[in-house]
Design brief:
Blueprint lengths: L1 E5 L23 H13 L3 E6 L1 H10 L4 E4 L12 H9 L8 H8 L1 H10 L7 E4 L2 H4 L8 E5 L13 E2 L2 H15 L3 E5 L5 E7 L6 E10 L11 H5 L1 H4 E4 L6 H17 L5 E8 L5 E7 L10 H8 L4 H16 L4
């Protein structure tokens, strides 16, 4: 099969001087695309680079692939992750990963949380700050966790994102409102063990392929924030335990929460689901990444799948095969 790779590269953008330094954090390097292309070749497919933006449109129209492997994050709005799959649906071109509705919904952390909780998925109590005056109306129990509502890849999440009182909330929230120009999600902080869960498949056939526990090497778990700084320096900041060094019964509950969230949010083919244990000892759904990072070295999903017995080439091939099954395609 000829499989096109839709992606947005960091090198495609020239950041504005007023942009936050993590503005392009979610976009890929060419090394990630090369890794996917080599894995596709290892699965007997022919990769085709499509890129993103207008060039993607031109390339997909001039030389339509049999399937698009979509890791494009899009640009410019809270619905940016839905841009590429919406276009592909208009053109009737099959693609991997979730559809436009799920991608748009899950990028908006408030909408995602409301949908998940309304369907019985356990989440931390949360609210949204849209203006400075909203800070004074918070009725949640401290400590709290503060993050931009429409970002991924830990953009806007720093070691000070955990706040213990109204003064700290003001000191963190006001700069975030100004810097990112979007609402903030504020949720009750979960002090227990943190996990990220890889899920592969569709509907009732979706299954967990691995669970990774994230343990800080500096400081204690009760105050730990899996921040942008930590992810950039993960070799010195955290230890990844696969399988988790937690009771098997707790890990089973973590898996159940992740699968429940994946299914009720309509995720397809593959996603990475973040879960953390709350103050009540119960796992809470934090968020889902339906376009998980697939760098062959640093991607959390890649690390956990590899340590769970699914090497990189098999992971990429499995994502493609899940899309083939959805569309009723044969090789």
């Amino acid at each position: 099969m000829k499989i096109g790779i839709a992606c947005n590269l960091k090198s495609d953008f020239i950041p504005d001087a007023n942009d936050p330094e993590d503005k392009l954090e979610e976009y890929d390097h060419m090394g990630t695309v090369d890794g996917i292309a080599h894995a596709l070749e290892a699965n007997s497919h022919t990769p085709l680079f499509l890129g993103g933006g207008r060039k993607f449109i031109e390339r997909v129209l001039s030389d339509p692939p049999d399937l698009v492997f979509n890791i494009a994050e899009g640009y410019g709005s809270r619905s940016r992750e839905a841009h590429v799959p919406a276009l592909l649906e208009m053109l009737n071109i099959p693609y991997t990963h979730s559809d436009p509705l799920t991608l748009a919904m899950t990028l908006d952390k408030s909408i995602c949380g409301h949908v998940a909780s309304s369907m019985g998925v356990p989440t931390p109590a949360f609210t949204v700050i849209e203006r400075e005056v909203d800070i004074e109306k918070i009725e949640l129990s401290y400590p709290l966790f503060v993050k931009p509502a429409f970002e991924g890849s830990s953009i806007g999440i720093h070691k000070n994102s955990r706040v213990e009182n109204i003064d700290q909330l003001r000191s963190v929230a006001l700069p975030l409102l100004h810097t990112y120009g979007q609402p903030l999600l504020v949720e009750e902080y979960c002090p227990g063990a943190e996990f990220t869960v890889g899920v592969l498949g569709n509907g009732a056939d979706a299954r967990v392929i691995g669970v990774m526990e994230i343990v800080p090497l500096k400081g204690d778990m009760q105050n730990f924030v899996y921040s942008l700084e930590v992810k950039r320096n993960y070799l010195e900041e955290v230890q990844y335990n696969v399988p988790p060094q937690q009771p098997a019964e707790l890990v089973r509950r973590v898996e159940a929460v992740a699968l429940q969230a994946y299914r009720c949010l309509g995720c397809r083919d593959v996603s990475r689901v973040d879960v953390r244990v709350g103050a009540d000892g119960e796992p809470k759904f934090l968020e889902v990444n339906p376009l998980p990072g697939l760098n062959h070295v640093t991607g959390d999903l890649v690390i956990l799948s590899g340590r769970s017995g699914m090497p990189y080439e098999q992971l990429i091939g499995s994502i493609v095969n899940e899309a083939f099954r959805r569309y009723g395609m044969t090789r």
